[in-house]
Amino acid sequence: MRHALIFAAGLGERMRPLTNRTPKPLLPVGGKPLIEWHLEKLASIGVRYVVINTSHLAEQFPDALGDGSRWGLRIRYAYEGPTPLETGGGMLNALNLLGPEPFLVISGDVWTDADFRSLPAEPAGLGHLLMVDNPAHHPGGDFSLDATGVLHDDHAWPRLTYSGIGIFRRELLHDWHAVVADAGAAETPPRFKLRPLLERAMSRAQLHGSHHRGNWTDVGTPQRLAELDERLKVPRPR
Question: What span, in angstroms and rounded, lies between the C-alpha atoms of 9 and 83?
Fold first, then answer.
């Protein structure tokens, strides 16, 4: 697995006022920007090319991260314009910067201790999602995972929450016009959510997943950011 895409274009509205001047993925947690935790892990598993989607305060990302050489990475930035393109539109916008192989996708506003090497470099279908236990703020979960590792959009099995981390084939976006009904899909560039494409893949048993039972945080509010920062603080030697 050589390529990864980090979603970092969100407006961070729930994180205000912290995000009025700083994009959420660049907020410090555990002594460094949240996005750096991802970059370090990506470098450690052999990823070499990282695309970062940007929109809100986009100019701060290259200023803070540069070309990625300090981590042994090559970073390229996919600017979405002043209005974020949502997850589907953002992935489509970045596709020409990603190689033909399956690529790793990470939401820039999550933190996890999951080992990315546990994800399949070649997913069995169109994608493989890392699922986690439902957090208190999302008790209903997103999808259910059966005993064979296939994902479903029903309640036949206990529902889990999509972590925002997964492996995808570019074919997931094939013929996206036929599936997406978002109003922004007709705009240039298109703006739409990824979920309808995930639902289509699930209906064809082409989306698999695995259950991570370790630590994971959706860093969506100042309180959750502060709680994560406290957990990640390294005790100072006496």
Answer: 9
